[in-house]
Amino acid sequence: MTEGRLPDILSGMEKLGLSHRPDALRSRLHVVSVDAVLSALNSFTDVVRYLNTRRSTGAVLELSNEGAVQDALYLMLRPWILDLVPENPTDKIANRYVIKDFLSLSGRFVIEVKFVRDRDHGKSLAKEINDDIETYRYHSYCDDLVFFIYDPDGNIPDAAALERHVRTSRVYDGKTLRCHGIIKP
């Protein structure tokens, strides 16, 4: 009885495999715009404040490192960005590997999370961001690169200048890479 169903089973498996290709996935998903993601990221502080001051005795978010911030952002964004993928290594680009914090194939954007550890890190963040931008300019699914920078202790000397530096479009070999920056305390 199973032998007669084998062609149907194989056909079903092939259809399932085809439906999970990036182009097929994109057609099934509601594409979330980068503007909507930026709006959500701008409410990060409000979300954290709500979770940490609510009346019930639930989990409190201790955002003491980059991983904790990534987890909070993933929980906040994943319910409505269905193809959001956390911590996925990129191909080797420009002689280095990069770990994308989050990628949405359908939205064609990457979210890079930065946690400012101390004053020295705050001063060197612009160089780190420039290095990331140079790497993502080659990424085939990254049209928008969003930097979410969590600076809980105010260690960035001039946050407004850093935001202005990040927020610009760059063109590399005819490909536009739009960069966005959000800095939250």
CATH architecture of the largest domain: 3-Layer(aba) Sandwich
According to CATH, the fold-level topology of the largest domain is: Restriction Endonuclease
* Net shape: globular
Strand content: 15-25%
| SSE run | HHHHHEEEHEHEE
Number of domains: 2
- How can the largest sheet be summarized? 6 strands, mixed
Helix content: 40-55%
The number of helical runs is: 7
Cα end-to-end separation: 63 Å
Q: Name the CATH class of the largest domain.
A: Alpha Beta
What is the SS-derived class? alpha/beta
- List how many beta strands DSSP finds: 6
- Which strand order do you get reading across the main beta sheet? 1-2-3-4-6-5
Poorly predicted parts: none
Rg over CA atoms, rounded to whole Å, is 20 Å
Mean pLDDT: 83
Offer a few descriptive terms.
185 residues, alpha/beta, Restriction Endonuclease, 22% strand
Q: What can you see in these coordinates?
A:
- The chain has 185 residues and is an alpha/beta fold.
- It folds into two domains: 1-29; 31-184, Restriction Endonuclease.
- Helices cover 44% and strands 22% of the residues.
- The chain contains seven helices and six strands.
- The chain has helices at residues 2-19, 22-28, 34-42, 44-53, 66-77, 119-136, 159-166; strands spanning 84-89, 99-104, 109-115, 144-150, 168-172, 175-184.
- It has a six-stranded mixed sheet, with helices on both faces.
- Strand 2 and strand 3 (109-115) form a beta hairpin.
- The radius of gyration is 20 Å and the shape is globular.
- The termini are far apart.
